Amino acid sequence: MHSTAASDIYARNIINTGIDVGDLGLVRQDGGFDFLFNVFLKADDKINKWLEKGLPEGYEPLPKDNQQFYRNSNQFSPGALASMQMHCNGASAGGEIKFELTRSEGALLMLPKGAERVDYQNHSAVRDYAFAMQGDGTSM
User: Fold this and answer.
1) Do residues 19 and 12 touch, judged by C-beta distance below 8 A?
2) Domain interval for residue 59
3) Torsion of CA 95, 99, 104, 109, to 10 degrees
4) Which of 22, 50, 69, 71 could form an SS bridge with 38, CB 3.0 to 4.6 Å?
């Protein structure tokens, strides 16, 4: 398992940009994301070069095919609320927002600037690349 320190450094580096297309990592049982490296970036890129375990032996970045990117710049409009367990009951002029829980637990994400979504459509290239970097085709 990757160290929490590496994930903390990754989190500090992406605070302004968010998770990027090509970020490869492991999703933990608690839902956290342990970043390993970005498949599209060179070995000496600031995101890849600080990794304590380093990059896989023989690492070469996956060539980007810009035709394969799909961007939805308005995935969530400014001021959007994203939650599956809560519903907004309204907002008052004084800035108060009221929520209603539909389950005993939940999470709420408020997006004052909104959010965009970028997908890389060439899934087979990414899968083949991951197996090639692994070397033996077993799971990471």
Assistant:
1) no
2) 4-77+114-134
3) -60
4) 22
Domain count, the chain: 1
pLDDT for the residue numbered 6: 60
**18 lies in a domain?**
yes
**The two three-digit tokens of residue 73, written as one number:** 């710049």
8-state DSSP, 121? -
Return the pLDDT at 110: 75
Handedness of CA 14, 27, 136, 51 (dihedral sign): positive
Q: Rounded mean pLDDT of 72-82? A: 75
C-alpha distances (whole Å) from 38 to each of 62, 76, 96, 119 are 9, 25, 40, 14
CB 26 within 8 A of CB 2: yes
Which pLDDT score, from 0 to 100, does residue 48 have?
A: 82
- pLDDT, position 135: 58
